[in-house]
Design a protein that fits this description.
Distance between the termini of chain A: 46 Å
CATH topology of the largest domain in chain A: Aminoglycoside 3'-phosphotransferase, Chain: A, domain 2
Radius of gyration of chain A: 20 Å
Oligomer: homodimer
Largest interface: A-B, 35 and 35 residues
Structural class of chain A: alpha+beta
CATH superfamily of the largest domain in chain A: Aminoglycoside phosphotransferase (APH), C-terminal lobe
Number of helices of chain A: 9
Number of domains of chain A: 2
Largest sheet of chain A: 5 strands, antiparallel
Order of helices and strands of chain A: HEEEHEEHHHEEEEHHHH
Helix content of chain A: 40-55%
């Protein structure tokens, strides 16, 4: 939620010219994105988003992320398209940072999604999974099953400050997930962070996906489970079955889930809830009280995890199998 | 440098429609402005800036500020123009805040102004002073001479933490200013904060002025002195006489300074430096170390004040009188 790096107008003019984008007309720092510095840039050729990569993004991952945007855009997914420099590079330097400039997407995120939005999202997610199949670079999921224990180890001694019993609950859940995690599901490129604030709508139709900085290779159905967690709970963390049914129907209209994926859905939903519970708990415990970036309250994902723990069959999510 | 208030898409759609601006296309929080929350808004009719007024701006002052923008724009000054609501109001409510939406200005601020930029700025400042003469609302300068002692009293006991002897230096300066301040200069609407980051250029021509939230009634020549402080020192706080000469020549091309104003310039420059020294010293001492908004280092204005203290005639600023 902050600009971390200032850009000099003279440097930016040269950067814009070097990317064949004409003359600079306006630029403003955007108060979005905790990881990087983002500017909204207007030139005589159009509107763009400039990103300066701060330390939290591994520079070695940038070719994967930017190549993915390029690949997805070329394969019909509405997402920011990287603009190459005169020498053909997607990542150059600006203000002492690795920098990339991408096309501007119209639309805005929806604070209170409806079932219609969820259906649209599910359909686009399946299209994203199809489009990613021909992408040749790969990136492991650093926040997948293998990443959860090391992350939990960083704060488990302080974890009961969130709520009494928190540490034991998570330890038990990690054991259960290790024993029950499905390892034979179809994998490919997943977004892995497709919350409503990363999805734009225009006139109530999905207009684009943003923020691919958690994208990686993992089970497609895990991405579905992440979206069920992110889109289908109300403000009291009650599951909205109509939203789940719409999201799953939208997804299956483009990519029917296998019987194995269907059966694994409750387990994947528990894993997805655990992943966000862990990162939010860590940030909650490690963000200074007066920081302007407010961490998300981890209690929401605690309640969502507890919901999934009660689920025994995927019908609870509104799944209608094609059988 | 932060968005303080989140806006809901449904509320914003209604707000945009109520201001006759068509359908919402995009909106992004802008990481500019410490006092208020600003959003860049695109609709089917154009680009706008939405401001939600946070507690640091006195709501009773909003009719003065927004009326002034309207008046100046109607009188040929390039500045944001308030868009009225269906019922004719410049200030309405959004997200529990007083809110206004204004036209978007093309251009961007210059990090390292040249003499040409300074001349352009001086000329526009004089035009602003002329254009403000027919504005009927008034607002006292709360950060003018009478405001400096109360502000200093808030931190003078801690002031030597900035540099040894700081407190005595400021106390002496305030006494000197009280004795020497000119009270017979022409007054009118002044911007009072026309630093380079509040002035946009496009193709190296001045394209607009922003951020009028310190505008008030005071001596026109004080505004000139503020600009000499803000535009005519290099990064080592050395005065650049060519910049001063260009700024003053630009100003005088539209509004020649009276002999009284010319003679008062060194005193007004000391006062202007003291005003920014005081607010920056206060912010420096009262901003938490890990806040994302970094306060300006007050030492720059200490050095500028010390420069002005050595000045005996306005020629030192590059002033060429018309006599």
């Amino acid at each position: 939620m902050a600009v971390y790096t200032d850009v000099d107008d003279i440097e930016l003019k040269a950067f814009v010219a070097n990317h064949g984008l004409g003359d600079l007309v306006s630029f403003k720092g955007i108060a979005e994105g905790v990881e990087n510095t983002n500017y909204f840039v207007v030139t005589t050729t159009g509107r763009y988003i400039l990103t300066l990569y701060e330390q939290r993004v591994d520079r070695a991952d940038l070719p994967f992320f930017l190549g993915l945007l390029d690949h997805l855009a070329a394969n019909g997914i509405a997402c920011p398209t990287p603009i190459k420099s005169a020498s053909g590079e997607q990542v150059t330097e600006l203000a002492g940072r690795a920098a990339a400039i991408v096309s501007f997407l119209e639309g805005f995120c929806i604070h209170s999604p409806t079932a219609t939005h969820c259906r649209d999202l599910g359909q686009t997610l399946a299209r994203l999974h199809h489009a990613g199949k021909s992408y040749t670079l790969t990136r492991p999921n650093t926040l997948g099953l293998a990443g959860w224990r090391p992350l939990f180890a960083k704060f488990k001694n302080d974890a009961d400050a969130i709520t009494p019993g928190f540490s034991q609950l998570v330890a038990d859940e990690l054991n259960w997930l290790d024993e029950n995690w499905p390892n034979d599901l179809e994998t490919g490129i997943i977004h892995a962070d497709l919350f409503p604030d990363n999805v734009f709508f225009l006139n109530d139709k999905l207009s684009g996906l943003i923020d691919f900085y958690f994208a990686c290779n993992d089970a497609f159905a895990l991405d579905v489970a992440i979206c069920l967690n992110a889109w289908c709970f109300d403000n009291s963390d009650q599951f909205i079955k109509d939203h789940g049914a719409a999201l799953l129907a939208g997804y299956q209209s483009e990519r029917p889930l296998s019987s194995n994926e269907c059966a694994s859905l409750p387990t994947l939903c528990r894993g997805a809830a655990t992943r966000f519970l862990l990162t939010r708990a860590y940030d909650w415990l490690n963000t200074k009280q007066d920081a302007l970036v407010r961490p998300h309250d981890p209690h929401h994902f605690l309640k969502r995890l507890q919901f999934h723990q009660q689920v025994t069959t995927p019908d609870s999510y509104g799944l209608k199998t094609n059988a």
